[in-house]
Amino acid sequence: MQEVFQVTAQGLQAPHLQACERGFHYGDGFFTTALVVEGAILNWSAHLRRLRNSAQRLGFAATLAQIETLSQQIAQAYQQLASVEAAMVLKIMIARGCGGRGYAPPLCENATILLQWSSAPFHWSMNAVTHAPMASMICQTPISISPALAGIKHFNRLENVLARAELDSLGLSEGVMLDVHQHCICGTQSNLVLIEGDALVTPSLHKSGVEGTSRYALSQWAQAFGYQWQETEIDLKRLQQADELFFINAVRGIQPVAKLEDRVFATEQGMSLQSLWWPQMQRAALKLGECP
Ligand SMILES: Cc1ncc(COP(=O)(O)O)c(C=O)c1O
Q1: Is ligand 1 within 6 A of the CB of residue 114?
Q2: CB of 249 closer than 6 A to ligand 1?
Q3: Secondary structure of residue 44 in the 3-state scheme
């Protein structure tokens, strides 16, 4: 299934995109992708936090107020869906709209907000989804260093598109992306976490990468799960020497890595974190029937 709504001043409408949309011209926008399970958005507070941060950092001043009431429009859209599934993916896209001169943004933006609902890429049952440990690789496509945009899930994701194509050609579903200094930054569509003793260690994202909502949740819960949390620079040697590795994102949760290139990794801790993950995510969910 796939259904898309546009949030407008007149309420929800079928999407109507204009040719002058700055999202097309300059990639002038940002998005977040959430998992909706049994009518509840998992980890909503982290999605809201990232939408607010992105709007602030990119100067979408007028859109900030709209973001605060977005859960109401999402709940309305959910009620209007032609068909509902146990697990669905909700992609919230916010583009700056039309206006301004060239790159210069309009003084008061009129953002285009889309809510896209689609089927989850897996079968959700017994309140969880289990991903078997995966084989992975180091992608050749480097991720750029861009401190002004680091952390934001903005529209310009062409490096991820190129890296993802590398994986598809080898039948793999996720790979590690490095910057030009050979520092590990992330997966093509997820964040990367190493297990080193009793620490969860993840690349710092001050210069590159997307600050994931799941990475943020994990940073908050690490101690309760029995781990220290550390954000730092990680080179390839450190990656290879980790006890375990996993990728993490909002749709798939924790995906342990069994093999990266030729190196085989243990996956026991990653698998047990995976089983702790979904109940915790559901506790932190926003029920769409209960939106303020
Ligand atoms: C490049 C990139 N990094 C990290 C993430 C993880 O973000 P989240 O945990 O919000 O899904 C994603 C998710 O799609 C991504 O595309």
Answers
A1: no
A2: yes
A3: helix
Q: How far apart are the first and last CA of the chain?
A: 27
Least Cα distance to 203 among 236, 168, 226, 227 occurs for 236
Residue type (1 letter), 271:
M
Distance CA 84, CA 92 (A): 17
- Please list the pLDDT of the chain residue by residue as tens digits (292 residues): 999 999 999 999 999 999 999 999 999 999 999 999 999 999 999 999 999 999 999 999 999 999 999 999 999 999 999 999 999 999 999 999 999 889 999 988 899 999 999 999 888 876 778 888 999 999 999 999 999 999 999 999 999 999 999 999 899 999 999 999 999 999 999 999 999 999 999 999 999 999 999 999 999 999 999 999 999 999 999 999 999 999 999 999 999 999 999 999 999 999 999 999 999 998 889 999 765 5
Instruction: Tokens 């309009």: give the residue.
Output: 106
Those residues whose C-beta lies under 8 Å from the C-beta of residue 9, and which sit 6 or more positions away, are none
CA–CA gap between residue 55 and residue 36 (Å, rounded): 23
Q: How far is the CA of 231 from the centre of ligand 1 (A)?
A: 16
152 lines ligand 1 (CB under 6 A): no
- Whether the pTM exceeds 0.85: the reply is yes
| Cα-to-centroid distance, 202 and ligand 1 (Å) | 13
Residue nearest to atom 14 of ligand 1 (CA): 189
User: To the nearest 10°, the Cα dihedral for 197, 185, 279, 271?
Assistant: -50
